[in-house]
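Action item from last week, closing it out:
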Amino acid sequence: MKKLTLICTLILTPLPALAHKVIAGVFPAGEAIEGELGFSNGDMAVDQEVIVYGPDGAELGRTVTDADGFFLFTPTRPVAHTFKADLGAGHVADVTMPADEVADILGVEAEASDTPVLAAPAERGATITVASLSDEERAAIAKIVRDETRPLRREIAAYREHNDLQSILGGIGYIIGLFGIGFYVAARKKMTA
């Protein structure tokens, strides 16, 4: 009877809140760096201050996330940019954009060719010359892509969190089932003895 009481106590004891992972990412967005902060359950870090550091640890600037957990930062130096934010409860976001990507945003490194040449898939040997896009056109395309991918990122993060919780609850169910089988076998042995 003591074993059954202990098992019931363990089962009925509330499980601690599941910890969520911090999601942080940065990517080029026209002449700026865009980033996002949030948690693996799909909740985004709203109105969160983000501090930007250089490779030497000096502060390069600050920015704040919007209602969707996104932020923009315009770099001024072609060095690695590290974005840090304290989301509370031990959750710290820390993500770095390498110096070469920042230099590309600033246009510091010259490209080998002004107009890239792409091979056409339909005809071998044929080439298509792609005209350079203006900065306004690149910024407009980057904004459209960001706006279209935001809901998808949230759904993917929420799906990952849901599957983790489902796996945990499934594991607990198997453990309880094994204990039930054990108690059944023990009860049958007592009845036959």
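Closing note: The longest helix spans residues 135-192.
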